[in-house]
Q: What sequence folds into this?
């Protein structure tokens, strides 16, 4: 039996809380004490299992950086003013407990497991038709069973597979669920994130069979017979079905197109062709969305955004992130004059390389002025078009695939503005992501 | 006609079958491999990256793996190598990872004291043991692991002092480990 003090040091070590010298001292002790080494290994195993359980089975939002925030929907964000953080924390707590209760009774869970093979979550105003193969006992309208066919004419959906696979599919699309591990994509643009436990997940198009080997990839199936696979992380095996069977393994940063000639052609990978996070609104609605009494956000052409409140102070919107598709436009309107900082943000789940001068557009301010462009590494170009309008462009390529936009240090400071309109040019491909922060308000 | 030659179709079928069996092994041992890498890189935020690299190498080398031999030992040797390669790339020196004697001992511990079938049983045991915790304790530990944040950062979010959170987490984890061991040993769980 080892001492509690030793076990405490082991956990501190696993939590990364020991200095290098303290770690070394601990490992010297473990080397001489087999019992302590055994406990160390078991604690590491517990740690790995807890990581797995917490990340794969609790469906709390994993990209907000706030452990108390649940997955948001446009109807709930920012609509409850008093004690909003406490409320969310309570809801998160209840959700966690409910989820855990499900996990805690495995036999009961298995006996009553009506979890659909796939559930899907459409953006507001998404138009789809769903046809099941034969009779269905699915209780929810937004679930797929083997043989279900989903046709998407407008909008975006997020698919969540029982196996843990996530997919974002943008319209127009036509897909059939073959079984829990195989999806047939007749047409459409789809991005997939496959956890380790679902390795072997397969996407079939008319011209390609793609078998995942634990990774993140995108598939485009066009009506003209062109089918593409783009790999962003890990590896996939892509093959052409039929008589002229060709097979190739593709790693991160590689892409292939299968065309009607039967060849697998090398193409440039394009992460920007895919949406990797379900947008919170459908762009084309053009309807203003009331985030709170002080701010309105409107979007056109596929804007996705997340907005958060400052936890400690006022009811006012304080910061947020948004992504803009090619040709997209977003407007932030404030009911008072504010100072804003605009900087780059990561496009979720995307760290694939991009090229220089691909991202550009325009921004316009109503009232106020552009006070400073902070750009120590020449990462952004801001060029005046008029007194109130500017052209923006990202100037640096991602020369290191691990470098993400959020690591860029450029920033645009705006002072005393009432409204910001920011657009991405229609000839600028893919998506761009920005963060904004209200740093002060100038009350009249 | 030479009947001993393998047709392209049956060769393909054999390859698919072998790949399928290999994927099963790879999937079954994911937690084990992750745990082993965690033990080599305690507290390191890049454990998942090393795991991913290890998986890719394991897949690339699948044809070198001899069926019916010890997959876990094979996977651990590759995980160890990939961890070293990753540290070398990052120009980091790590006393533990480059101490072959101790890492050998760790690999042995994982082979012996956490055998496959027991680690497979660990998740259900962990779930059962989690049920013995209070709601607050469960919320705390799930959020700690889910948030991937330091204790100091988590303490600020849950509005506890750093020391109080550290003690609470330690108590929870020590009771979980003991509960799992009792459970795996087939004894009555002591809460």
A:
């Amino acid at each position: 039996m080892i001492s509690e003090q030793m076990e405490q040091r082991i956990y501190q070590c696993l939590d990364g809380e020991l200095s290098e010298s303290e770690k070394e001292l601990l490992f010297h002790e473990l080397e001489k004490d087999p019992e302590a080494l055994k406990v160390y290994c078991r604690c590491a195993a517990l740690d790995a299992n807890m990581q797995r359980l917490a990340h794969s089975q609790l469906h709390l939002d994993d990209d907000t950086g706030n452990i108390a925030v649940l997955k948001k929907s446009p109807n709930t964000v920012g609509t409850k003013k008093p004690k909003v953080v406490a409320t969310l924390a309570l809801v998160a707590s209840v959700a966690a407990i409910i989820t855990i209760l499900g996990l805690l009774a495995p036999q009961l869970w298995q006996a009553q497991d009506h979890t659909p093979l796939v559930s899907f979550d459409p953006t507001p105003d998404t138009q789809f038709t769903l046809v099941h193969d034969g009779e269905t006992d699915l209780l929810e309208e937004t679930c797929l069973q083997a043989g279900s066919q989903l046709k998407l004419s407008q909008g975006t959906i997020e698919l969540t597979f029982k196996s843990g696979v996530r997919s974002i599919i943008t319209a127009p699309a036509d897909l059939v669920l073959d079984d829990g591990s195989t999806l047939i994509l007749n047409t459409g643009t789809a991005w997939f994130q496959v956890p380790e436990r679902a390795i072997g997940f397969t996407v079939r198009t008319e011209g390609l069979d793609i078998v995942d080997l634990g990774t993140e990839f995108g598939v485009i199936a066009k009506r003209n017979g062109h089918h593409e696979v783009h790999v962003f992380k890990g590896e996939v095996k892509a093959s052409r079905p039929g008589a002229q069977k060709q097979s190739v393994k593709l790693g991160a940063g590689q892409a292939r197109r299968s065309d009607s000639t039967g060849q697998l052609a090398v193409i440039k990978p394009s992460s920007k062709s895919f949406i990797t996070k379900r947008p919170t609104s459908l762009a084309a609605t053009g309807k203003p969305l009331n985030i709170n009494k002080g701010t309105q956000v409107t979007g056109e052409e596929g804007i996705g955004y997340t907005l958060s409140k400052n936890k400690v102070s006022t009811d006012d919107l304080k910061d947020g992130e948004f992504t803009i598709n090619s040709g997209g436009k977003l407007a932030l309107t404030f009911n008072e004059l504010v100072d804003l900082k605009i900087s780059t943000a990561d496009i979720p789940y995307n760290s694939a390389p991009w090229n220089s001068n691909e991202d550009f557009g325009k921004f316009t301010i109503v009232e106020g002025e552009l006070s400073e462009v902070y750009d120590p590494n020449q990462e952004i170009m801001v060029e005046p078009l008029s007194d109130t309008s500017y052209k923006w462009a990202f100037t640096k390529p991602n020369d290191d695939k691990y470098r993400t936009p959020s690591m860029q240090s450029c920033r645009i400071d705006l002072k005393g503005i009432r409204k910001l309109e920011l657009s991405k040019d229609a000839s600028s491909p893919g998506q761009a992501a920005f963060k904004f922060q209200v740093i002060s308000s100038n009350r009249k | 006609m030479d009947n001993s030659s393998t047709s392209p179709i049956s060769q393909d079928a054999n390859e698919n079958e072998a790949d399928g069996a290999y994927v099963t092994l790879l999937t079954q041992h994911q937690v084990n491999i992750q745990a082993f890498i965690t033990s080599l890189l305690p507290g390191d935020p890049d454990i998942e990256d090393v795991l991913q690299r290890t998986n890719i190498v394991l897949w690339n080398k699948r044809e070198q793996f001899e069926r019916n031999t010890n997959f876990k030992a094979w996977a651990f040797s590759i995980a160890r190598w990939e961890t070293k390669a990753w540290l070398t790339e990052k120009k980091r020196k790590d006393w533990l990872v480059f101490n072959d004697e101790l890492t050998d001992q760790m690999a042995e511990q994982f082979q012996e004291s956490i055998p496959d079938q027991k680690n497979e049983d660990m998740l259900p045991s962990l779930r059962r043991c989690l049920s013995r915790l209070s709601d607050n304790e469960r919320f705390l530990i799930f959020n700690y692991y889910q948030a991937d944040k330091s204790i100091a950062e988590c303490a600020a979010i849950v509005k506890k002092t750093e020391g109080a959170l550290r003690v609470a987490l330690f108590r929870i984890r020590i009771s979980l480990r003991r509960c799992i061991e009792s459970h795996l040993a087939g004894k009555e769980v002591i809460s």
The first helix of chain A runs from residue 4 to 14. The CA atoms of residues 61 and 72 of chain A lie 8 Å apart. Chain A touches chain B through 62 residues (CB under 8 Å). Chain A is about 15% helix and 40% strand.
